[in-house]
Amino acid sequence: MATPDGIGESECLNCGRAVVVRKNRGGFAYCRCEGCGVNVQHHIMRHSEAFIQKRVRLEGAPESLKKPEKAAPAAPAKPAAQPVPEAGKKPEKAAPELSAAEKFMRGIK
Ligand SMILES: [Zn+2]
Asked: Taking the alpha carbons of 33, 36, 42, 47 in that order, is the dihedral positive or negative?
């Protein structure tokens, strides 16, 4: 009998280390801390489910159930593609300084 896959991550109740939470054949959540060796095994389905709901970061859960830092932002907005200057065409330079006469002619003070 293969070990059931982990359903998510939680913290050890004893030392706070990250632990993988699994479900046993009966569907009860359990985990074992590799840091301090504490075993957590639920035997009451209500407790097991409450534990999963409150303390386990589920893998493959809807975004709303995940911690914000794990939620990947929706497709990032890409900046609009900059128009590429045509080959051989020099980019337009800033308007040259107008002479006093030209300013006068254009009504610029
Ligand atoms: Zn521990």
From this structure: negative
Q: How many angstroms is it from 36 CA to the middle of ligand 1?
A: 4
Distance 66 CA to ligand 1 centre (A): 23
Q: Would you kindly state where each structural domain of the chain is located, as residue ranges?
A: 6-64
Taking only the tens of pLDDT, the chain with its 109 residues reads: 444 578 999 999 899 999 999 999 999 999 999 999 999 999 999 999 999 999 999 877 665 555 555 555 667 677 777 777 677 766 667 777 778 888 888 887 6
Judge whether 28 and 43 are in contact, CB under 8 Å.
Answer: yes
Sequence-ordered strand ranges (E) for the chain:
6-11, 18-23, 29-32, 39-41, 57-58
How far is the centre of ligand 1, averaged over its atoms, from the C-alpha of 87 (Å)? Answer: 64
Element (H, E) at 38: none
Using CB atoms within 10 A of its CB, is residue 22 exposed (0-12), middle (13-18) or buried (19+)? middle
